[in-house]
Design a protein that fits this description.
With about 300 residues, the protein is mainly alpha-helical. It has 13 helices and six strands. The chain has one domain (about 1-190, about 255-300): Orthogonal Bundle (Cytochrome p450). A hairpin with a 2-residue loop joins strand 2 (about 200) and strand 3 (about 205).
Amino acid sequence: LRVLINKAFSRARIEQLRNRAEVLAEDLVDRMRAKLKPDIIEDFALPLPLTMISELLGLPEEARTRFRRWTNVFLGARSEFRMALSLPSIFALMRYLRRLVATRRHTPKDDLISALIAVEEGGDRLSQNELIAMLVLLIIAGHETTVNLIGSGMLALMENQREKERLLGDFSLLGSAVEELLRFTAPVETATERYAAQDIDMHATRIRRGDVIFPVLASANRDAQKFAEPDRLDIGRKPNPHLAFGDGVHYCVGSHLAKMEAEIAFGCLLRRLPKLSLACPARELRWRAAPVVRGLKSLPVIP
């Protein structure tokens, strides 16, 4: 599946979107500056990656608010009961995607959905169910995680004025700053479930074969054996072997897109709004109650 996806999700294809992301970021900041009470999440961090992944996939503009609503319900399912309540939203999302895929099969366009339908490796293609499942994953992961990175990253910079000023004084640090904010803010807090292939003894704990395990990426990224002063934000940190995108065969296929969007987002916000500050005490900020991902519900600011 990853071999097929990578053909349609290459670095070159993502770089073609840079211009569009820069124009969109500038427009969003213009709108923020015109508001009395701007909110980084609602006014910038959400529309930037949601628009980008929607345009990349070829999702109609009028459907994007529905996608956001459906994915919110899905990600908020923290119990079997809540999961049951989320099923209508999940089925609605899948029905919509099946209709959209059928349309693209008949009339292809220059978008990722059409590319995924057409992509082939050694006679292998994505089945209908694989294609729908992959699209659901790309829609959710393609914007939810980047929303969290931009929102939590800006909060971290506002709370660490020294590092914020350091970045304002040298925008060549944007690349390493994004890597550090990925490590520091944990936009994806845990990996999806794994199962022990054999009995494992770890830190005086026996993990038995077949046990379900949820690796906590946020904890790994604060490991003092890997990072000097792990609880300190250092936008120039090198090396920075964080696990925000996973590792090995599970490494995120959308990492190029996320990094590009984040560099443009932080660069644009800091360049256009260098005195950006919180509009409320940090303790009053509310975090989303969602498993796996970690992000703010809102981030009110003073431009």
